[in-house]
Design goal:
This protein is mainly beta. It folds into 2 domains: about 90 residues, Immunoglobulin-like (Sandwich); about 55 residues, no CATH class. About 15% of the residues lie in helices and about 40% in strands. It has 2 helices and 11 strands; from the N terminus they run ββββββββββαβα. The strands form 3 sheets. Strands 3, 4, 6, 7, 8 and 9 form a 6-stranded antiparallel sheet that branches. It has a 3-stranded antiparallel sheet with strand order 1-2-5, with no helix packed on it. The longest helix has 19 residues.
């Protein structure tokens, strides 16, 4: 049985010299990292891609940009998640959420379930999950909102069943 890891956190990045290091602990579907960079936190564009090379992938190509983020892409090029924007000058994350690169598809998981199925009761309720390509981004799409909405909805269903 093959296991698929889908973290509820966002990808991480680190900077050493002129390289950006991307990782996402627990994510098993990442095939490629997209490095996005720009002169402001709200104007990032994809500058290069790097094939995932293990737990942490080094990406060269940051240049003189002062803000960076990384996007995790699956084997089909769909955007799985994006880091928070990082300010190179202040060596700290900003409060700006990263967004998927322009033209990428946002990967989403649609789940149809009942609270009893999620809670693991013996009722005949079932959970059907299908991964689908949702929409092409125009720079404003963020995977985190969809995941967080799903988690909050599931928490509400669980609380209602108690």
């Amino acid at each position: 049985m093959q296991w698929t890891g889908t973290p509820l956190t966002v990808p991480d990045l680190g900077i050493a010299d002129s390289d950006v290091y991307a990782s996402w602990n627990g994510a098993t579907e990442v095939a490629t990292w997209s490095l996005m960079a720009g002169t402001s936190a709200s104007s990032l564009t994809s500058v290069t891609n790097a094939t995932r090379t293990g737990f942490e992938t080094a990406i060269t190509g940051m240049g003189s940009n002062t803000y960076v983020a990384v996007a995790a892409l699956d084997a089909d090029g769909a955007c799985l998640g994006v880091s928070t924007v990082y300010s190179v000058g202040s060596s700290a994350y900003t409060s700006t959420a990263g967004s998927c690169p322009n033209g990428t598809i946002i990967a989403t998981t649609e789940t149809s379930s009942t609270a009893t199925a999620v809670a693991g009761s013996s009722s005949s309720s079932s959970t059907a999950a299908a991964t689908t390509a949702a929409t092409t981004t125009s720079g404003a799409g963020s995977v985190r909102g969809g995941v967080l909405s799903g988690v909050l909805a599931m928490a509400g269903l669980l609380a209602a069943s108690w």
